[in-house]
Amino acid sequence: MPNPTKHKSNIKQAVPFFWVTDMDVSLNYYIHGLGFEMTNKWLDHEKVRWCWIQHGGAAIMLQEFWRRGQHTNTPVGKLGEGVSIYFICEDAISFFNDVRSRGIDATQPVVKNSLWTTALQDPNGYKMVFESASDEAEDTVFTPTE
């Protein structure tokens, strides 16, 4: 295999694209539950069919499956099987506290690989993990102070 010439990368960003079964449910989860903001959308008969949502420097694209017509693409298997999206945060514990206060079920933060880690699954089964640096010992579990 030839050795590629070193040059400036043309790639700027990777953005996960999630097909969803119900756009309204997904938007409610991501916007009201996780704090994302819709920054771009495609409307079809006044319904959001595709959108770009953003939270800080991270983005996700959502599009609802076509249920009828020539573009029908409803899934046969389980959505998101075998894929996890990792988000690097300034403070994963703050993220955890914030989403839990909005009724989102996220795992109790634990230190793994020197990172506070909390995970959740969206309504379609897509797994997302939110992490931030930690000086705590491996396997330390966050205990809320109330």
Largest sheet: 4 strands, mixed
Q: Name the average pLDDT.
A: 91
**Count of helical stretches:** 2
What's the CATH topology name of the largest domain? Signal recognition particle alu RNA binding heterodimer, srp9/1
The total strand number stands at 8
Q: What fraction strand?
A: 25-35%
| Rg over CA atoms | 18 Å
- Tally of structural domains: 2
What is the N-to-C succession of helices and strands?
A: EHEEEEHEEE
CATH class label of the largest domain: Alpha Beta
> How are the strands of the biggest sheet laid out side by side?
1-4-3-2
Work out the helicity level: 10-25%
Can you describe this structure in just a few lines?
This protein has 146 residues and is of the alpha/beta class.
Protein described:
This protein is an alpha/beta fold. It has two domains: 14-66, Signal recognition particle alu RNA binding heterodimer, srp9/1; 82-146, Signal recognition particle alu RNA binding heterodimer, srp9/1 (2-Layer Sandwich), CATH 3.30.720.110. It is 14% helix and 34% strand. It is built from two helices and eight strands; from the N terminus they run βαββββαβββ. It has helices at residues 23-33, 92-101, and strands spanning 17-20, 37-44, 47-55, 58-64, 84-88, 110-112, 115-121, 127-133.
Q: Main attributes?
A:
alpha/beta; Signal recognition particle alu RNA binding heterodimer, srp9/1; 2 domains; four-stranded mixed beta sheet; 8 strands; 146 residues
